[in-house]
Amino acid sequence: MGYKSISELRPFRLDTVAAIVGLLIALALLPLRLFASQIYLNTVPIVLGIACVLYLIGLYQGENSTTIPALPSTVSMTLPTVVLGGLSTMVVLPALQGARTPVFFGLASLVGTLVIGQIVFANDRDFKPGLLLLQIVLFAFVFRFTALYATAGYIGIDVWTHAELTHAILEEGSVGGISDDKHYASPFYHLLVAASSLLYDVPFRLALFLSVGIVMPVSVLLIYATTNLLVSQRWATLATALFAFASHVSMWGIHLIPTSLGLVFFLGMVYALIRVMRIEYTMRDFSLLLLMSVAVILTHQVSTFIMLVLLLAAFIAQLVFEVGPLGLTRLDTSVFRTKKPVNLIGLVVFNLGLTIFVWSLTPYRQQSFLATVLSFFSQTLEESAGFLNIASDTSSETAEAGAEATPTLLEQVVPYVDALGFLFLLGATFVGCLYVVHRRRAEQSVFTLLLAAAFMLVFVLGLPMFGIRNFIPTRWFAFLFAPMAILGAIGLRTLSQGLNPKIVVSVLLMVVLIYPGAMIFAVESNVDNPVFDEQHERLAYDESELAAVESIGRLTGSPSGQEIRPDQQLHTDHPYQTLFSRTGAYPSTTTATVPDNGVADHDYVVYRSTQSTSATYFNDADGNGRIEQLTQSRLCSPAQATVYTNGDVTMCTASPASS
């Protein structure tokens, strides 16, 4: 192995220039942490800098001629059995413990490590992609369905609304049952679950699990099919594992809403799009692409916008290769086969036109969905947009509060635990992007993935820095993980071929040992029972909490919102208050206001024991939400009358004597 001199590489290649520019950008972004406290401002520049340095080191070291250490054949043959045993234990634990506990997540992390370890360290003779894909899909099934099995009701907030909408369709016998809702023009999710309920003759909850719930784990195979169009089976399998273990992907596998189904169709569209760019496609291939895009539009609005961003990236990639700046039309056929760019202008125009048409017909807040969204966006630009106007702990009020109560070490560490898996994948993605911008390797398909990831990162990380969160950036991560997983696998493949074997093994070991656990312990993967339950709220409920909502609804007669006076509004913690309003048990319900070291002053309140033991949200005197653990007396005072209690949940109202 010999190091190349700079003179040997002159003139600089495009990937070399990009790596140097990326390193300079990383250095320029470092001072931003002095002006705002935000986890991605603190970490992304470091990740970008490390990725660029590793790529440059690999570039100047040349091709790696030394074989990377591989697992012995006996170990490679034994590990699938060990993984199967671990998955079996993962099934048993929630059944015995009643929930997915930290022990479960620790075991899941170990199983994930064993799976990725097989992928990257098995020798070519022992590498079995079919067996590894089976392990990945089984892991996805077990990890998601144990959460669904161990949880009463549903996991998440929005799913309760969609359950009510689906019930309305079943009662009405047509989509007219939700004619006043924004999902009226995008009803595919609700129609699918309603049809499953009728077909299987099962309740809505089971129908949801048997339809969308089953599709989610299987859909990760679309990542394999897409990546295998670009690289070999080993790295396509790695991309599949990176995506399947990702935190936000797991979340939409247990919080089953239209976003979940939209993600499935989005993955199908990514596959169809890359396929038509990589092969001599037929009308059947292009029809699949068109079908997937229409399915996204008829399923979910946010997913539709993300799909349009992907199509925009593909169209720009087409223009780049048709115009041919920087010599990008000179392809290296040993890396990617030379193929004329696919003309996508018709597909882009069709989908944009159909989206505008559908959104114009979609009712939303007394207007069309399109008009309302544009109104919200213009209002944000006028009132709250500004550089580093981040919704985080940067306000003066928070700073003053922080001076009084210094956060504990755990409170400081938890945000980094939540983001660690994403940062690992982001670093690999940066390396993959540098690899594909080389003019000998560049082609429309990989440039589409690069541009799509870049545009989506702007919506996820860039716009929130300016106070623009109208695009609901938290919904984008799972979609972003698709191009990131593909490019990340390409990036790790690049490092394995260019770096010193010792460095390669160190990098791959970090991915194997840290990535699965980081993604699994991130809050999005365990919203049903958070590992750090004093920092993150639980988005699932016990039987007693669900029974209390139903009983309180019967007790009060489930009055409509118009029948409830402002002083009769029900107050409790967030997210429990959403359960009352979204199920219709008590439509006028909101988050209780509890002053610091004080008591709530509401006539109608609901206390649950979880408020005293785990993270729940309340408003302070200034109306700002905060996590706090309360005693019952601070919310449901002794002066109030108890009108309902089941031991875990208590409803209090103003006492007639006190009034």
UniProtKB/TrEMBL annotation:
The keyword Isomerase does not apply. GO terms for molecular function: pentosyltransferase activity. It is found in: Cell membrane. InterPro entries: LipidA_mod_glycosyltrf_83. Its main location: membrane. PANTHER family: MANNOSYLTRANSFERASE YKCB-RELATED, MEMBRANE PROTEIN. This is Uncharacterized membrane protein. It comes from Natronorubrum thiooxidans. The lineage of its organism: Archaea, Methanobacteriati, Methanobacteriota, Stenosarchaea group, Halobacteria.
